[in-house]
Amino acid sequence: MIKMVLTSVVAGMIFLISTGAVAQATPPAAGGTADGIAFDTPYGTSISLEAAKKVLAAAEAEASKHRWKLCIAVVDTNGDLVHFSRMEGAQIASVGISQAKARTSARYRRETRVFYNAIETGRASVATLDPTLVASPGGYPLIEGGKLIGAIGCSGGTGDQDAAACKAGADLIK
Fold this sequence. Notes:
Layout (H helix, E strand, L loop, with lengths): L1 H17 L30 H17 L5 E5 L5 E6 L6 H16 L4 H8 L18 E6 L2 E9 L3 H12 L4
Helix pairs in contact: 2-5
């Protein structure tokens, strides 16, 4: 059984690669091969607790301004929780979802909206191969000095509301 599952996963990966469903960094060269690797932001030193508190506070301020009741998670480069807040009245389900969005963003080094857009447009995606991946807006990588130091995830509003709050936090990191 395990061998069949692994064979299926490998076959799926080969399909994705061979069909060009994997994101490309630049348009293909004359030979059809892309130059570089998409989302190749190098990992840096993980976000500090102090910086995570500031990022979370900015996201929470944005949510409060619009009366959105969100759960907000900040994770390190591995996707492990550094700081978390559940705003008053935020739905309980959003606790885990906000953390999963942040984890997805950190581990894949991109905004979670990328996966959402791929699925919405009917393109094959790694999201179908990784059960921990969250393909929903509201996860943003935190990039400092060109290096990924963590990510922020928000849940509880619409995808666009979650993303707007996350962006407010992510914009603090330069």
